[in-house]
Amino acid sequence: MFDLTGRRVLVTGGSKGIGHGIAAAFAEAGASVAIAARDTSALQDAVGRLDALGPGRVTAHVADITSREDTHRMVAEAVAALDGLDVLCANAGIFPERSLIEMVEEDLDGVLAVNVAGTIWAVQAAIPALTASGRGRVILTSSITGPTTGYPGWSHYGATKAAQLGFMRSAALELAPRRITVNAVLPGNILTEGLRDMGEEYLATMSRTIPLGELGTPADIGAAAAFLATDEARYITGQPIVVDGGQTLPESPEAVLPVTP
Q: How many Cβ atoms from other residues are within 10 Å of residue 48's Cβ?
């Protein structure tokens, strides 16, 4: 689909779900890919799957992105393993469910630490290597939840995803003189392990709200991320790209027409 041969890419949260889909898209396009996550076993399984997709190197790095120090160490290890860095996909995130009335400090602190602080620390740590690349790209994984839509039980999650876009715009301005672009992909409902845990009834209900009639896949998000890393996307920065099958378009359920064969 895209030729990214020779590009060096780091994907946080790359061992499963959307992150693995992003890593797979880059590997298939010829890039060398480093994936980072907290679970060593999941990382090794993911490396085995990614190795079969392309000629580039695939490396795994265990890290806790809520820690600035550990995130900087992880990025330094990935840069050393890949001999540089051209693309950072700051994808790691969590989406715990908690009603606003029941929320306690630990709930809010946890999601802010991963989704907001973890994103910022990863981008900060990657700046020197992305600058040296001369074609540095930062691609954030945000969401339609928060920036565009809301959902009961995810007010704290939605707040973090909106915060990522505020960070994106200012970071894009700061890093533009370094020839680094900063953009975000906003997934809708993507069929991942986490979404499957919501149950078949939830999946069926959500599918009916999507004009294209089906849930997205991690590969759909990977394709958008890979595009933002191409030379053709060099003039795009500070922009959110929604990938949701049209989910945010209808003004009412009646506006979603039946999918015809």
A: 11
Six token digits for residue 227 = 């595009």
Amino acid letter, residue 183: N
pLDDT (tens digit per residue) in 114-144:
999 999 999 999 999 999 999 999 999 999 9
Dig out the tokens for 85 from the structure. 């860095």
Residue 208 placed within a domain? no
Question: What CA–CA distance (Å, rounded) separates 96 from 231?
Answer: 36
Catalytic residue ranges:
157
Range of the domain at 116: 8-190+217-242
pTM: 0.95
The total number of structural domains in the chain stands at 1
The full DSSP string for 233-260 is: GTT--S-EEEESTTTT--SSGGGSPPPP
Length of the chain: 261
What is the mean pLDDT of the segment spanning 102-115? 98
CATH of the domain at 109: 3.40.50.720
When comparing pLDDT for 101 and 192, which is higher?
101
CA distance 110 to 112: 6
